Amino acid sequence: MSTKARLNRMFSAQGKCFDVAIDHGFFNEYSFLAGIENMKGAIETVVKAGPDCIQLSTGQAKLLQEIPGKQKPGLVLRTDAANIYGNVLPRFLFSELIDRAIEQAVRWDAVAVCVNLLLLPGQPELHHQCVRNITLLKSECEKYGMPLMVEPLVMLPNEEKGGYMVDGDIRKIMPLVRQGVELGADVIKADPSDDVTEYHRVIEVASGVPVLVRGGGRASDEEIVNRTVELMKQGASGIVYGRNVIQHPNPGGMTSALMSIVHEGAAAEQALAILKGGRV
């Protein structure tokens, strides 16, 4: 069964997508709850701003799919819960798939599923588990025509930065992105590189699979807008931002500003004007 029908709901006719991640409560990390304590309100605010997709866990998907009407974002279902995001890594690390993930995605009318491909220093068992998760999901995705979004995530040593800190070394991002493609990803959700003007190299190594770039931790409005403009120029198919939307004082305005960059090619100044003007 082809994934095309669902990918057409996820991406615009020009092949662009903005997915707002609101699945952070899945990971048992207190700092991730800021801005999403009230999930119903957070989802309604983002839905009103009209992104292409919202990324949620199976336990919260109903808050999106119970909203009446046809004009709402597609659901990207997060399929694995991991415990790698605290300041101190636990003795035992995991990235555990939910049971019958693709059947749950079909039941919730998802447009795609998302799964981690984690690379932490000195943790080959965790990487192995992620590879196994992806291979299991891929077979089921093919059966049901469900697009598979793989999230290659290179992280710094905890003792170096502590907590959920990504490694922006493009020489580490590129091979992990390529591994995700080789494992069968229909969409890649990858970190930005330290030097975003090099990001065309990541796009190239993805071999035609659309790359959506992660937002990471909170950054200033100017930084996130300028970075997004450059990433789109480098050939990204869109973005998956979470905390830079849901922890922003004006999440609706930030969504509108970022949508203007992704879909209309807006310059940084234009996007910041939308944000400051509060146009939602």
Automatic annotation (TrEMBL):
PANTHER family: 3-HYDROXY-5-PHOSPHONOOXYPENTANE-2,4-DIONE THIOLASE, FRUCTOSE-BISPHOSPHATE ALDOLASE CLASS 1. SMART domains: DeoC. It comes from the Bacteria. InterPro entries: Aldolase_TIM (IPR013785), DeoC/FbaB/LacD_aldolase (IPR002915), DeoC/FbaB_aldolase (IPR050456), FbaB-like (IPR041720). It comes from Cohnella silvisoli. This is Aldolase.
